[in-house]
Amino acid sequence: MPEPAAPLIAKWIDYFQCEFKIAKTRSTKLGDYRHPFRDKGHRISVNFNLNHYAFLVTTVHEFAHLLTWNDFKNKVKPHGAEWKKNFQRMMVPFFDMNIFPEDIHRAIDNYMSNPAASSCSDLHLSRALKKYDSNKTETLHLEQLPINTNFKIKDGRRFTKGERIRKRYRCVCLDDKRIYLFNPLAEVFLLE
């Protein structure tokens, strides 16, 4: 994470007596919060492969879950109004410290008007954060392909890109003919 943010995150870990784990890459989530259960306390994990700005945003996202759990237990929705308010409040100190570059700051500010369950669902924020990835290998995103182009994903399944429906692309799996909705920033491989 950005170095100036570390002392505040360390305070939160200590104050909430939270087990904070840097996790291996998970394709389905960037971070995770687990509330106290049996003999375990609060647990947060964040994927290690995120750039330091995405790591910080994800960390704050998960701490907002922790704070919401402390205030309401399981009586509110995980990404409901209470969580949104906590997430917005917990991001303020990092804005005050000018942690983020201007493009990310603007994207987060816009995203914060109504934060979603995942920062990836906000394409503007996701694009801004991806610009700072250190592994700048040439990645092909679904939105770059023309309609009716065949592609595959990491697990080997093959698809044909279809029309955009609201925020996602409707794609047909060539292996089982089922329809899947893809984020425009999904990493894909062109089929020859």
Automatic annotation (TrEMBL):
It comes from Pedobacter terrae. It comes from the Bacteria. One of its GO terms (biological process) is response to stress. Residues 17-93 form the SprT-like domain. Pfam families: SprT-like. This is SprT-like family protein.
